[in-house]
Amino acid sequence: MYAVGIDSGTQGTKVLIIDFKGKVLGRGSAPHRFIENLKQQPGASEQAPQMWLAAFRKALAQALMSSQIEPEKIVSFGVSGQQHGLVALDKNGDPIRPAKLWNDTSTIKENELIIKKLGGPQQFIKKLGLNLAVGYTASKILWLKRNEAENYKKLKTVLLPHNYLNYYLSGKIHMEYGDASGTGLMDIRKRQWSREAMAAIDPELEAKFPPLSHPSSAVGYLQKKIADQYGLKKVLVASGGGDNMMAAIGTGNVRPGICTLSLGTSGTIYSYFAHPFIDPQGEIASFCDSTGGWLPLLCTMNVTNTTEGLKALLKISNKQLEELASQAPVGADKLVFLPFLDGERVPVLPQAKAVLFGLDRKNFKPSSLARAFMEGPILNLNYGFQRMKTLGLRPTEIRATGGGAKSRLWLQIVADIFQTPVVIPEEKEGAAFGAALQSIWNFYLAQGQKTKIEELTSEMVKLSRHPIEPNPKSFPIYVQLQQRLNSLWQTLKQEFTAHQQSNIKD
């Protein structure tokens, strides 16, 4: 028997075909496009949901061809999707307009209005268990109501990207706890829709959302007309989830203490909790996961975007960057880099700028710069990671993914700053792999086999044999640098705020 994992992300769709031992047999991919020249306020980011379907069909065909398996032996599909996007459907189940994506920031005013109606940021957290970020789905719905009244009148059903793929595959409307927790409309502790948050947008909005389901409950079965196109038989469509929730499963992050770290353009780190995780300040996103637990998530805006800039400036490769950085001592001779090239989400500094602090004759050289550019983003992540620890996280292991995870030096820096061992999952497509694993779990449960998701991941998620252990000799240096970095951004926060107000006046 075989399972299919589908990851419909921002940049494209990836499909994996695996056997029931976790071995990847086939792969496929197809790119996505953004809609260009949007005539809206700055920050708009949209894609056509129909494009996701076309990309899925192409990627699935590639995966089937490369796998050389008998298609009729595929028994389950699982879908991972980019979080927070608004897919608005009419009474016929067709998209009313393009989907507004997770990185659409054109809804700032609507976000503020919703928070204000619920009594302010602290009251919002108190009532729903998480802070309302501008990227979440809630403000997109209010934006549609305020800016496209005719389209809003047509609105019959609200879905998220992965739900839309599930709807296409099965013909069923469905939402599970994990991805739904990122709408900003759900009480994440009770795992129920918040009627007060819904009513802040529209008293009739709740009727446009599907009832919430436990992620162990499958959506249904693949529609015959789709199955026939690929020579498939009876295929279960699993509940699926958001890309972070699926990547947690794909890296085996389904029991306390294991953390998943993604080092891409931005940085994320998240960990499984068996009980609700609430950050009273709202810096850590308090999501549910797609196994029945919770998944607090830290996201920063600046990781490989900073090193890519330095590489372009020095005209060097990734290998040369690592070689340069390895020539400098731990701590880059006290050179501190605040990596806020694109502002920052945690700490909350949207108008912040990057800063190099502590330049002197000793460290004013390429090797120290390279080391500081690798250490700065991890120290910045560690600010939020330490906050997660004060709120209950007890990390035992970090499982690293993303482009930055290809650098052995960078992973050693992570281990030393976080003071936690780092390992690398063998399968790099964590979200698609997690979607396939979740579909196997749903399949077993549907067959009456009481299988636990942690049993499946323990068997199927393969890790590098040699973990990167933290070096205690580096701890004092990084603790001191962390204190300096935290002090710097707190000191500069007033300056960043003044800069923002100056831009508004101009």
Overview of this structure, please?
A hairpin with a 3-residue loop joins strand 16 (258-263) and strand 17. The relative contact order is 0.12. The protein has helices at 49-67, 108-117, 121-128, 137-147, 149-153, 161-170, 177-180, 195-201, 224-230, 243-250, 304-314, 318-326, 366-390, 408-418, 430-446, 453-460, 475-505, and strands at 2-8, 12-19, 24-31, 46-47, 74-81, 87-89, 99-100, 157-159, 175-176, 186-187, 192-193, 212-213, 220-221, 236-237, 241-242, 258-263, 267-271, 285-288, 294-300, 336-338, 355-357, 397-401, 422-423. Helix 13 packs across helix 14. By secondary structure, the protein is an alpha/beta fold. The strands form seven sheets. Strands 1, 2, 3, 5, 13, 14 and 15 form a seven-stranded mixed beta sheet that branches. Strands 18-19-17-16-22-23 form a six-stranded mixed beta sheet. A two-stranded antiparallel sheet has the order 4-7. It is globular and about 70 Å long.
